[in-house]
Automatic annotation (TrEMBL):
InterPro entries: CAF17_C (IPR057460), TrmE/GcvT-like (IPR027266), YgfZ/GCV_T_CS (IPR017703), YgfZ/GcvT (IPR045179)
Main localization category: mitochondrion
Domain CAF17 C-terminal: 83-159
Domain of life from the UniProt record: Eukaryota
High-level lineage: Eukaryota, Metazoa, Chordata, Craniata, Vertebrata
Organism per entry: Vicugna pacos
Name of the protein in question: Transferase CAF17, mitochondrial isoform X2
Amino acid sequence: MGWRLLSQDEGSALVPGSQLGDLQDYHRHRYQQGVPEGIHDLPPGVALPLESNLAFMNGISFTKGCYIGQELTARTHHMGVIRKRLFPVQLSGPLPVGGIAPGTSVLTESGQAAGKYRAGQGDVGLALLRAEKVKGPLHIRTSESGLVALTASVPDWWPTATN
């Protein structure tokens, strides 16, 4: 997933082969890797931990008790069926001036709902998509530019059983 290093020293000599980047570079890399962060990517009351891939990042304990949503999270985990996941997406086509609005519907080629666009920056972002729909052609319909093609990918850091 990469590294984030905060240092008082200038330059990339601290980590051989590294490069300096700004906050925009960090968010772009994060979106490309499918790593959610904060309330834009994980809206309170909407985002579920397993759908947001937090178990893949060791962000959920299945041994600790007493946390909000524990019953649903544990039951879903032990049943082993997670129908929707937060996928990194690449957008292509004319993008609206203000970008794609969070919550915009993602559609299949036939117009069926495949999920919702969650957040992004430019031509990369995150979308909560039904797992069985990600392999086919997907798009977002915008009022300004018509159709924007959307390609979902499975990050290489995910466990191979979900790829």
